[in-house]
Amino acid sequence: MPWFKVDDTFAMHEKVMAAGNSAIGLWVRAGAWSMQQLTDGFVPDHVLRVLGTPKERRLLVEVSLWDEAEGGISFRSWSERQPTKEQVEAARQAAAERQRHARERAKSRRESQRDDSVSHGPPDPTRPDPTPLPTEVDRAASAAKPKRATQRPAGFRPSAGHIALAQELGIDLRAEWQQFCDHHDARGSTFKSWPAALNTWIRNAAKFGRSRTAAGGTTPRQQADQDMFDRQMARAQAREAGVES
In this structure, is residue 26 part of a structural domain? Predict the structure, then answer.
């Protein structure tokens, strides 16, 4: 059974807040319907009339969560965030194939046991399963494996915690977020925890007094602070990767 996915930053996303709770309720119900029917984000007019109101539909189009389509609407960037019909059907086919092989193996074992009972008497009922079960040590070792550092995930966005931290420190999160993305995308930075990296960026922005004028320029002192800020982030990235800076 496929699932309609909503990430953990969805609640505080600016488009969601602009649309309002009523329209977002329609968005979620329509997304679940589309996933159930495997329409790849298209919802026809007759379904929309049952699920919500024309006003809610207009709001979702205005905030760019939906696009108008012939005979209905389509979800913006569906294939980037949700499994497509092709992917769901391929997964179902793979699962069916695994079940078929499992049934064939079980049938083969039963036939082998019947052959053994004819030639050598009844099978040994105390024969243990040779497959060892995972121990607590095995599970702990598996859980302790370090995460691999990756480049910034496409769906990574500031969370409610990042927003609260920026407000507490008096930081313009919108401007800092753009700088954060530009800086690390240009460098090809990798982190094991991108949420932690953004927290560090916000705190360093407050620590070094990084600010921007209305015209977007910087003073020599601000430029020096920005250079120090960039060095600090580079050291944080080196520590994350386990490399001495």
Answer: yes
pLDDT above 70 coverage of the chain, percent: 77
At 8-47, the pLDDT tens digits run 999 999 999 999 999 999 999 999 999 999 999 999 999 9
What string of DSSP letters covers 172-213? -HHHHHHHHHHHHHHHT--BS-HHHHHHHHHHHHHHTT----
| Domains in the chain, number | 3
Could you give phi then psi for residue 69, rounded to 5 degrees?
-135, 165
Residues 228 and 182 in one domain: yes
Q: Which of 122, 151, 175 is the last residue of a domain?
A: 122
Residue 136 lies in a domain: no
How many residues does this entry show for the chain?
245
Average pLDDT taken over every residue of the chain: 84
Q: For the sheet containing 72-75, what is the strand order?
A: 42-44, 72-75, 66-69
Q: Tell me: do 20 and 62 sit in the same domain.
A: yes
- The parent domain of residue 175 ranges over 160-241
Same domain, yes or no: 184 and 237: yes
- 3-state secondary structure (DSSP) of residue 72: strand
Angle, alpha carbons 65-4-29 (nearest 5°): 65
CA dihedral over 32, 36, 41, 46, signed as positive or negative: negative
* pLDDT tens sequence across 187-210: 889 998 989 999 998 999 888 876
Q: Which of 68-82, 174-188, 220-234 has the lowest mean pLDDT?
A: 220-234
